[in-house]
Amino acid sequence: MTRVLVALGGNALQPARSAGTWTEAVRTMRRSARYLARTVAVGHELVVTHGNGPQVGDLVREAELAEKEVPAPPMYVAGAESEGEIGFLIAQELSTALARAGVPRIVVPVVCRTEVAADDPAFRAPSKPVGRFYTAAEARRLRAARGWTLRADRARGGWRRVVPSPIPRRWLEGPAIRRAFDLGLGRRCVFVVTGGGGVPVVRRANGAWAGVDAVIDKDRAAALVARELDCAALVIVTDVPGAAVGFGRPGQRWLRDVSAAELGAHLRAGEFGSGSMGPKVEAVLEFVRRGGREAVITDLRSLSRALAGRAGTRVRSAAATPGGGAIGSPASGRRRRAVKPA
User: Fold this and answer.
1) Which residue out of 51, 197, 280, 291 is catalytically annotated?
2) Which of 53, 196, 218, 309 does the annotation list as catalytic?
3) Which of 128, 211, 264, 324 is catalytic?
4) Beta strands at 128-134 and 170-171: parallel, antiparallel or unpaired
5) Domains in the chain: ranges and CATH
6) Residue 264 neighbours by CB under 8 Å, 6+ apart
7) Alpha-carbon Rg of the chain, whole angstroms?
8) 10 a catalytic residue
9) From CA 212, how far away is CA 117, in angstroms rounded?
10) Which three-class secondary structure state does DSSP give residue 244?
């Protein structure tokens, strides 16, 4: 039995151009859960992470609308709320799908914290847009009243809040979940962890933890979790079948089995957008370069075939056998723990 971490993209939870209703979310997750259940049915231990961008944006907007009646919480609290909300949704639908697939498991969602460095350069250059668009007058008021950083979006009009995106350094709940796997609970449970990259926290000089308003890249956090849990594979699920060279242009070419060196060269050449495929490629490269055996980028429909080596973009570590077996085959057993998490 191999241990696989599947990082769900936003489309697995809330499709583009949807109204964002709970009914839609349930319907979408019910469909996604069937694909995840197949992963367990073929013999894998499963860990799930997920995005939370639309959900956090909605919660921040709700707080703005209600602030005359209820004090608005910090954004990192909205991140924790979304972890609980989405974790509940995944638990509801995935537990049912697993039972129907004949592999019942206890689905355990955990609200997680991710440590970032207080002196991370990202705090000096906020870059990740969150929430709705504001008028210029609203932007001036919010700068003065709340100290927000807002940036004009000339293409779409209006102003939008931007927050830092620091690098994840440590998953605080990781040792406890790791211990659960060491005790064999991976064969009885599916853990849902570090939603949205986890709630960002920093360590104060007095040793206390403090939440910070920031966005942690969920795929980087997934790579961190996969290393901490000694996963055989990291699978990043997106809305396209894999990574492509020349994406959207004549001569587009999907990448299948590639080395870390080749994929890194394409990344440096600018083949992957910084706001789309780029972070996913960076995450899988980080995973395999720091001891992970292999990583896959694929869409949800192709998940089972990607785990069998028949779909998606698959990148292996230099130590992996060239042309080796698919994830879960005898040639790709789970590696011994050799690298400590960052």
Assistant:
1) 280
2) 218
3) 128
4) unpaired
5) 3-115+172-332 (3.40.1160.10)
6) 285
7) 20
8) yes
9) 11
10) strand
- Phi then psi for residue 72, to 5 deg, are -75, 135
Candidate list 9, 10, 242, 312, residue with the active-site label = 10
Is residue 340 among the annotated active site residues? no
Name the token pair of 195: 């939603």
Are the C-beta atoms of residues 240 and 212 closer than 8 Å to each other? no
Predicted TM-score of the model (pTM) = 0.91
- Taking alpha carbons only, the member of 203, 193, 148, 157 closest to residue 49 is 193
* Neighbouring residues of 323: CB distance < 8 A, sequence distance ≥ 6: 257
pLDDT in tens, the chain (342 residues): 699 999 998 767 777 777 889 999 999 999 999 999 999 999 999 999 999 988 898 899 899 889 889 998 999 999 999 999 999 999 999 999 999 999 999 999 999 999 999 999 999 999 999 888 999 999 999 999 889 999 998 888 899 999 999 999 999 999 999 999 999 999 999 999 999 999 999 999 999 999 999 999 999 999 999 999 999 999 999 989 999 999 988 888 999 999 999 999 999 999 998 878 999 999 999 999 999 999 999 999 999 999 999 999 999 876 655 455 566 543 344 444 433 433
Alpha helices in 101-217 (DSSP H): 136-146, 174-182
Pairing of strands 3-8, 45-50: parallel
d(Cα 94, Cα 108) in Å, to the nearest integer? 10
Q: Which two tokens stand for residue 329?
A: 């085959």
Instruction: Give dist(CA 73, CA 304) in Å, integer.
Output: 40
Closest residue by Cα to residue 170 from 229, 119, 116, 223: 116
Q: Which two tokens stand for residue 319?
A: 């130590």
Compute the distance between CA of residue 158 and CA of residue 154 in angstroms, rounded to an integer.
7
What does the alpha-carbon distance between residue 46 and residue 43 come to, in Å, rounded to a whole number?
9
Residue the block writes with tokens 């901490």: 228
- Of 229, 124, 213, 225, nearest to 169 by C-alpha is 225
Rounded Cα gap, residues 76 and 131, in angstroms: 13
Active site annotation includes 68: no
